[in-house]
Amino acid sequence: MRQRTAVVATALTLAIGLTAGCGGEGGGDSADKPRHKKAATSTPVPATPVPATPVPSKSVPATPTPAGPAQPAASAPKALSQAQLEKAILAKSDVPGFDVAPMDAPPPQGERADKSECAPLTAVINGRPEPAAQASAYRQLTGAKDNRPAVSEFLTTHGVQDATTALSRLRAAVEACEGGFRASGGGEGPSTYQGAKALPVAAQVGDDAFAYQVTGDYEGEPVPLVFHVVRSGGTLATFYTANLEGPQTPRIPPALLTAQADKLTKLK
Known about the structure:
Blueprint: H1 2-15, H2 28-31, H3 82-88, E1 98-102, E2 112-113, H4 119-125, E3 135-143, E4 150-157, H5 160-176, E5 181-184, E6 191-199, E7 208-218, E8 221-232, E9 235-242, H6 254-266
Antiparallel strand pairs: 1-3, 2-5, 3-4, 4-9, 5-6, 6-7, 7-8, 8-9
């Protein structure tokens, strides 16, 4: 197992930093390749259901109402700028017990799924959720004691409509790609993903949240990659971690999601 971990970690190192392609055929680990990310704890994720967001109904008055002062139409929240994102993304002072370091942006071209319905999954693996973001910021968070867990975060601003669309597409992609898929074009050999599945979210925060696992394939062995995506207005906070030591689903600390959602809420 140590040898497997070392080999997978080496492959991940080539992918980390959002600067290299998603790595070679050894499959999933390249799979683990959200190339800007690192290994993490293998503690199972606690079950927490995601409630559906109720849609307010509109009622039309049966009789005319007296005319009053004209009311301005409700406008969508303004998308955060690059400078605002850099201030909004998690910092060391926000998450006691974690070290936080900046990461470079990913290259414009990443790997592409062989099935169009799986494209939203590779977009996130590439560090570029779709629809394309107007601005993005990237951080690596590691436990201050022994660098565990290791979690990568990217904060992207899309506008409310596109951010909502992104989560909708991810949900559909996880369902459509349950049986696995392959991807290529990340700078190394093709990658194999054994499957995808939805997970309970670590914390009920933001306007919407979705968690899922994409299982990479390293020489026939599963490499679980876990993503938690939180929407706050038109901004998406995506957290990623991987288990390089076994098939158990790694855990993302709920405190990270809560801290990020709180910072974003204050900007609304």
